[in-house]
């Protein structure tokens, strides 16, 4: 006998495959088509017209063949999703100045949850660990203004506890409340299909039952897909990258992010690979520091152009795709303002580059720098200030910087989920002359007392 198969959807289950094999047994035809979902499987059976059945052992061998084939089509692949940029305005009061308007930028794309799939726009957030979407049971204004997940429409959904455990017989599933910087959500946890483009896996997620008006009602997107390391998620079954890696659908256990501020370029996130066309320099790998799950790396020192300032040895920086700003310790921010002599905006173009030296496992540190226009902002009346918010995280979790979208628009970043490291390359943008990653003079590695072991922004 011989068989030829067209590609199967990655979510085809073993039970469906066995059912297919059983139908082949009962079919005396030499040639027929069998449908699974939206795909067709063509089977050419030779000499089956002489027999009315096949042995159980042979049936299982055939099912195994189909299973192996389906697995083969699910591996060695990558998927890229276009990201949409939105700028949102928030009004807030500052003492002595009255109301001010802040501009928050976010990039988001579309994923699918459930079977049949329900579409949701989400921010791909390296600063959190769980997939959160509004639920149909959520009637707050923040939920009502977005698409909501309807669990009644999903055929294979399962309720789970929010630590990943099964719900005991006769017991109700638990709830979880997550507090963010300016709001909170409450929700229940479920297991269902999660698809990022063609990369699909069964996994756990949070369906909110209540969301605070601030900040969620102002979001242009529906939810958040956390891409921090596994320890940030409720359990491994909640980590989407862990699920995709374990299911074998990705060519490599990595994802990469390219963000552009130009309408002439497509921002995108790629799962399973990196793209050379987005890199204007070599990729420089730096190991993750700490074990709390954030993509944070250690800073060796802060530089003005090529000159070390001895300001923050042993600090760390968290690379966060889910925040629109830059932040740092208030003492360091204050010292930087003093050294840079910020005041009126007349001297901005004469200021040095502000660099952060990071070291990979081999070789000298390299400087990730921001130009004066990238680290300053005009606040009105011809006055400029440093575009770094104050963020004071005490030791051992700090001192800490957070690099959000302004940094990620300049640097193409690659996140290695398996090896816990971040790759940095200068992003290649259309009609822009790219910079290079500067290598600094060899310095002694910081001693053990300078190394910090935990992360920031612990959930309340």
TrEMBL record:
Domain of life assignment: Eukaryota
Pfam families reported in the protein's UniProt record: Asp (PF00026)
Keyword terms: Aspartyl protease, Hydrolase, Protease
Gene3D superfamilies in the record: Acid Proteases (2.40.70.10)
InterPro entries recorded: Aspartic_peptidase_A1, Aspartic_peptidase_AS, PEPTIDASE_A1, Peptidase_aspartic_dom_sf
Keyword Protease applies: yes
Start and end residues of each Peptidase A1 domain: 107-425
Transmembrane region(s): none
Similarity comment text for this entry: Belongs to the peptidase A1 family.
Protein name in the entry: Cathepsin E-A
């Amino acid at each position: 006998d011989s068989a030829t198969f067209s590609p199967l959807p990655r979510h085809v289950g073993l039970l469906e495959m066995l059912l297919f094999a059983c139908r082949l047994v009962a079919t005396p035809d030499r040639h027929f088509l069998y449908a699974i979902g939206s795909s067709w499987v063509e089977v050419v059976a030779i000499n089956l017209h002489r027999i009315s059945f096949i042995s159980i052992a042979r049936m299982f061998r055939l099912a195994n063949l189909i299973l192996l084939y389906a697995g083969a089509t699910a591996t060695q692949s990558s998927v890229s999703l276009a990201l949409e940029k939105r700028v949102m305005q928030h009004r807030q009061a500052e003492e002595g100045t009255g109301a001010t308007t802040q501009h928050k930028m976010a990039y988001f794309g579309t994923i699918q949850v459930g079977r049949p799939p329900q579409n949701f726009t989400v921010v791909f957030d390296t600063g959190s660990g769980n997939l959160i979407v509004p639920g149909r049971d959520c009637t707050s204004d923040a939920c009502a203004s977005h698409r909501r997940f309807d669990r009644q429409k999903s055929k294979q959904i399962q309720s789970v506890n929010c630590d990943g455990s099964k719900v005991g017989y006769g017991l109700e599933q638990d709830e979880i409340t997550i507090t963010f910087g300016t709001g909170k959500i409450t929700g229940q946890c479920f297991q269902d299909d999660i698809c990022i483009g063609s990369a699909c896996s069964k996994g756990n997620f949070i369906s909110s039952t209540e969301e605070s008006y601030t900040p969620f009602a102002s979001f242009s997107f529906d939810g958040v897909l956390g891409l921090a390391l596994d320890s940030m998620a409720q359990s491994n079954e909640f980590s989407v990258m862990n699920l995709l890696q374990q299911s074998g659908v990705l060519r490599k256990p990595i994802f990469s992010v390219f963000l552009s501020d130009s309408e002439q370029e497509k921002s995108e996130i790629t799962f399973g690979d990196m793209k050379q066309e987005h890199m204007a320099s070599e990729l420089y790998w730096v190991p993750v520091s700490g074990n709390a799950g954030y993509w944070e790396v250690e800073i060796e020192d802060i530089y003005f152009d090529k000159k070390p300032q001895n300001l923050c040895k042993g600090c760390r920086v968290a690379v966060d795709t889910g925040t629109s700003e830059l932040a740092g310790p208030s003492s360091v921010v204050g010292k930087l303002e003093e050294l840079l002599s910020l005041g009126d905006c007349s001297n901005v173009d004469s200021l040095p580059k502000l660099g952060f030296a990071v070291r990979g496992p081999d070789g000298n540190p390299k400087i990730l720098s921001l130009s004066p226009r990238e680290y300053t902002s005009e606040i009105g009346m011809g006055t400029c200030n440093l575009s770094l918010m104050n963020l004071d995280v005490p030791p051992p979790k700090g001192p800490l910087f957070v690099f959000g979208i302004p940094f990620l628009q300049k640097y193409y970043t690659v996140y290695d989920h398996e090896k816990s490291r971040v790759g940095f390359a200068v992003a290649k943008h259309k009609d822009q002359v790219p910079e290079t990653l500067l290598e600094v003079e060899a310095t002694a590695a910081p001693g053990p007392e300078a190394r910090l072991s935990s992360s920031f922004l612990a959930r309340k």
